[in-house]
Design goal:
By secondary structure, the protein is of the alpha+beta class. Helices cover 35% and strands 29% of the residues. A 6-stranded antiparallel beta sheet has the order 2-1-4-5-8-9, with helices on both faces. β15 and β16 form a beta hairpin. α2 runs antiparallel to α3, α5 packs antiparallel against α6 and α5 packs across α9. The longest helix has 23 residues. It starts with a strand and ends in a 6-residue tail after the last strand.
């Protein structure tokens, strides 16, 4: 349960809207506090995490600096929450960014696994939903329509854990309403990047391999769509079945051919240079990252506008050919299910 909460109204200065700052914390009844906590934390579904960064020194990141002050001294909560609101107001450079309420929340001694860790939450509401208010009126009822904040999903959220301060803390970040500006919350306001952890390495290793199979491999080798589908299936199955990724093991079991392995290693090196990232050659595999990324590994062969073939398993049960009627695929199976 949170121990401190304050709300500010942050408009869009480009559209002539104002910044309205609270001078004291909210005092909530227990039932309202529980509802708000469920609302604030309900959108954090992914295990993907981030950390603050700066182009110079971390202390020059305004949100990092403010949350550091609060973690060091909770008496500074109101002052630094005001600074966070002012910073959010100043970074709105796009007229499509919607104004809304900004909640700053302090979660004290909240258990995270086997240890307790304080957290600071920054939550912004933007969308308004219509609702009906019904009240007794004499021997009947009166009904009117109004607009308010729905409690189903927060628009923007960041949860900062009080650990790993030296590398920019650990954050969970959500933006469910980008308003045509994908940089406003992650980059302009928070200035965060994905953490260099097992989730990141699993995700990036899968995506670089997918790009290699779908883009580079057909340029260097004669491979059919069925062969590409087989490579994709083997790769995602490797990540599902293993607890740890080792590049040599992956190359041997999935890529197989030494020329393909050499080609992939060259592609991986170029990819890392172009994307300015480093994909480790050994790391624990994140099951959550595999689950999220596998939807991009759809092994589908599209035949004109007539058929789609979904390939999930044994490549040997699929054959191709050509006769007087045209090209064809032949599928072998044991039984219909």
């Amino acid at each position: 349960m949170f121990s401190k909460i304050v709300v500010h109204r942050v408009g869009n200065k480009i559209n002539g809207e104002s910044l309205i700052l609270s001078q004291e914390e909210l005092q909530l009844e227990e039932g309202m506090a529980e509802s708000l906590e469920d609302y604030f934390l309900g959108s954090f579904k992914s295990e993907e995490t981030f950390n603050f960064y700066s182009d110079t020194y971390l202390v020059n990141n305004p949100v990092f600096s403010s949350v550091s002050e609060i973690f060091d001294d909770k008496a500074k909560f109101l002052w630094e929450a005001e600074n966070i609101a002012k910073h959010l107001f100043e970074v709105a450079e796009n007229p499509r960014v919607m104004g809304g309420e900004l909640f700053i929340v302090y979660f004290e001694d909240d258990r995270e696994g086997d240890e307790k860790v304080d957290k600071i939450g920054i939550f912004k509401t933007e969308k308004r939903e219509p609702f009906l208010k019904i009240a007794p009126q004499g021997e009947s009822f009166d009904i009117e329509k109004d607009l308010g904040i729905g409690l189903s999903k927060i628009d923007k959220a960041a949860l900062i854990y009080n650990n790993h301060k030296e590398t920019g803390y650990v954050l969970s970040v959500v933006d469910n309403n980008k308003n045509g500006d994908m940089y406003y919350w992650f980059e302009d306001f928070l200035k965060v990047k994905q953490r260099d952890d097992e989730y990141f390495h699993t995700q990036e290793a899968l995506m670089v391999y997918k790009d290699y199979i779908t883009k580079q491999l057909p340029q260097e080798f004669e491979v059919s769509k069925a062969d590409q589908a087989d490579f994709l299936n083997k790769s995602i199955n490797f990540f599902k079945e293993k607890e740890e990724f080792k590049l040599d093991e992956f190359a041997s079991e999935v890529l197989g051919d030494e020329h393909v392995i050499e080609s992939f290693n060259n592609f991986k090196t170029d990819y890392e240079q172009d994307m300015q990232i480093n994909i480790a050659e050994e790391f624990p595999i994140s099951e959550a990252a595999v689950k999220k990324t596998q939807r991009h590994f759809k092994s589908i062969i599209k035949l004109d506008k007539n058929f789609h073939i979904y390939i999930h398993g044994d490549r040997q049960k699929l054959a191709t050919g050509e006769d007087e009627k045209g090209k064809y695929y032949m599928l072998y199976f044991d039984k219909e299910v």
